[in-house]
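Researcher: Structure prediction, please.
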Amino acid sequence: MISRMTAKRILKRTAGVASTWLHPFVGRPDRPSVCILAYHRVSDIGFVDPRLDNWNVTPAMFEKQIASLARFAEIIPVPEIPSRLGIAPAAKPSKPLVSLTFDDGFANFVTEALPVLRRYRAPATFSVVTKYVGSQEPMPFDRWSRQNRHRVPSSAWRAATWNEIEQCVGSGLVTISSHSHEHRIGSECTAEELRAEAESSRELLRSRLGRDLPLYYAYPYGSSRPALVPAEYVVAVKRAGYQLALSTDLGLAEAHSDPFFLPRVEAFGFDSAAVLRAKADGVLGPYIVPDWFRSAQRGA
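Model: Predicted structure follows.
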């Protein structure tokens, strides 16, 4: 019997094939929309753990994906999303709009992803878990890294340092975002703990990167199904002064989307250029089934 993780991988690959078949027959939405792609790890790993998701794209595949998106779409920074969604339908962009986001704060964003982003002048948002910035151990929420740290170089799991985050800011391409302070599951926290997750991260980011730093938030385990982000979490993020927040719900961001719960689309390590073009144009129906395999366990 195949494992749950193997079944998830098969479903995701099948969904990608189906999306490319459907793409010629499914037009881009007439209303303005943005495909917010969600990445995590960019590393050469060399093996597949049958039990745990590595949330990884190899550097070579990542470059192919960004090169394709740079030709096919207009890559915009997350802070521009609200204004770009406000354009009139008659002025819909000639290319699909895509934003690139990277969760968890891995150092390999700096060493592997940022050089590619520089080559293609592609802006991105880097969301860090502030308590673990600079940690020399795998981050506690990252089960894959804790299980496999001895099989890979530390670059596959190490958290970025504050100096590396400052390097990202200095590139002019990277927006720094909060991915909470401790990466806790929102539905398991009290209202006070949720407030601390949002506010502690805010204070650390501003103390290290400047008090005028614009604030954006990416919820850990940011799904409304299962309901892992309670209403109290959204309220806490708003009250902490963040300007918008990203979920992990599947979909394109549109004018009617809640700016404090914007949907995203995961970029997989096996996504071809054709699959990413379909995702950018909103051909997401085939991903509904694998999306139901979502779990509150990172890597499960």
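Model: The longest strand covers residues 33-39.
Researcher: Thanks, that helps.
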